[in-house]
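Title: Comparing notes on inverse folding

I've been comparing how different people in this forum approach sequence design from structure. To keep things fair, I'm posting one structure and asking everyone to reply with a full sequence. Here's the target:
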C-alpha cells in the first residue's frame, strides 16, 4: 500500500513539475514574442512619383523677358520603421529637371545647363516620451549641378491631458554651397566675338563659390474647440545670410536700346546694358497663419485660412 502511495505521489509530482515546465516555456516564448513585437512595428514603404510642368514668358535668367518653360519628374522612396518608442523615417528621392529657361545662361542651345538632376535624402528619428509628448531630430542633404546643401533639425510636440490642444515646435538649419555659374557674357575671357560663337564646353567653369545659411523656426498651436470647430495658428521665423541672389540671373536696363523685337538669345548677344542680379546678403521673413475648420455635416465642411507675411525686403 505504501509503495503504491509513493508511486502515486511521485507521478503527481512529475506531472505538476512537467506542467510547470511547459507553462514556464510557454510564458517565456510569449514574453519573447511580446518583447519582439514591442520593439519592431510594421514597416511602411511608400514609392511616390510626381510630374510638374511650367510655362511663362518672364524668366529672370533673361532679365524678366523670355521662356520659363520647365518640366520636373520626381521619384521618391519613403520608409518608416517603428522600433520600440522610436520611429525612423528615411526619405530618398531624385528630381529630373529640364529647363529651357536655365539653358539661356549660355547662347548655345541644349547646353549642360538645360538638364539637371537633384538627388536628395534625409533621415528623422522620432522618440515618444509618453502618450502626450515626443521629440524628433534629423539630418539631410541634396546635390545638383551647382548647389550642394546639408541640413539638420529637430523639434518637439506636446498635447494637453484632454488631447484637445497641441503645441508643435520645429527648427531646421540649411547650409548651401553654390558654384557661381554666371551668364555667358560675364564669364572670364568672353567678348562679343566669343559670345557670337559661344561654346559652353570651353567656358563652363564656375567663377568661384559662395555659401548661404538659413535658420527656420516654426511654432504651431492647435485646438479642438468642440465637436464641430477646430482652429490652429502657426508662426514662422526665417533668417537667411550669405548668397541670396541667383548668380545667373540678368537685369536689363532702360538704356535707349530697343530689344523688344529680339528673342532671348539675340538680346543676350546685343549691346543692351545689363548686370548680374545682386541682392542684400541677409533677409528676415515672418509669416503668421490662422486656420479654421468647421464641420457642418457629412457633406459640407468650411475651411478658412488667413496668412500675414512680413519680409524686410518688403511685405
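Reply #1:
Here's my take.
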Amino acid at each position: 500500500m505504501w509503495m503504491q502511495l509513493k508511486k502515486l505521489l511521485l507521478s503527481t509530482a512529475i506531472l505538476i513539475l512537467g506542467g510547470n515546465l511547459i507553462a514556464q516555456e510557454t510564458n517565456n516564448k510569449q514574453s519573447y514574442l511580446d518583447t519582439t513585437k514591442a520593439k519592431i512595428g510594421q514597416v511602411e514603404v511608400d514609392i511616390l512619383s510626381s510630374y510638374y510642368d511650367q510655362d511663362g514668358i518672364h524668366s529672370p535668367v533673361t532679365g524678366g523677358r523670355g521662356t520659363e518653360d520647365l518640366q520636373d519628374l520626381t521619384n521618391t522612396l519613403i520608409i518608416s520603421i517603428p522600433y520600440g518608442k522610436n520611429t525612423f523615417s528615411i526619405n530618398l528621392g531624385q528630381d529630373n529637371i529640364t529647363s529651357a529657361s536655365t539653358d539661356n545662361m549660355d547662347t548655345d542651345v541644349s547646353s549642360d545647363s538645360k538638364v539637371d538632376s537633384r538627388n536628395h535624402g534625409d533621415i528623422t528619428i522620432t522618440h515618444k516620451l509618453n502618450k502626450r509628448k515626443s521629440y524628433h531630430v534629423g539630418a539631410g542633404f541634396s546635390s545638383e549641378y551647382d548647389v550642394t546643401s546639408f541640413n539638420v533639425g529637430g523639434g518637439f510636440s506636446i498635447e494637453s491631458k484632454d488631447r484637445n490642444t497641441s503645441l508643435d515646435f520645429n527648427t531646421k538649419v540649411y547650409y548651401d554651397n553654390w558654384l557661381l555659374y554666371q551668364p555667358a557674357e560675364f564669364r572670364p575671357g568672353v567678348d562679343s566675338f566669343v559670345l557670337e560663337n559661344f561654346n559652353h564646353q570651353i567656358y563652363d567653369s564656375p567663377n568661384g563659390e559662395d555659401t548661404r545659411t538659413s535658420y527656420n523656426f516654426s511654432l504651431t498651436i492647435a485646438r479642438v474647440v468642440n465637436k464641430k470647430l477646430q482652429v490652429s495658428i502657426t508662426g514662422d521665423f526665417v533668417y537667411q545670410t550669405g548668397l541670396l541672389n541667383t548668380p545667373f540671373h540678368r537685369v536689363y536696363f532702360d538704356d535707349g536700346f530697343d530689344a523688344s523685337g529680339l528673342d532671348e538669345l539675340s538680346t543676350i548677344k546685343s549691346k543692351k546694358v545689363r548686370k548680374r542680379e545682386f541682392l542684400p546678403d541677409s533677409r528676415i521673413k515672418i509669416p503668421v497663419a490662422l486656420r479654421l475648420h468647421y464641420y457642418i455635416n457629412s457633406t459640407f465642411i468650411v475651411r478658412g485660412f488667413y496668412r500675414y507675411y512680413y519680409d524686410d525686403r518688403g511685405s
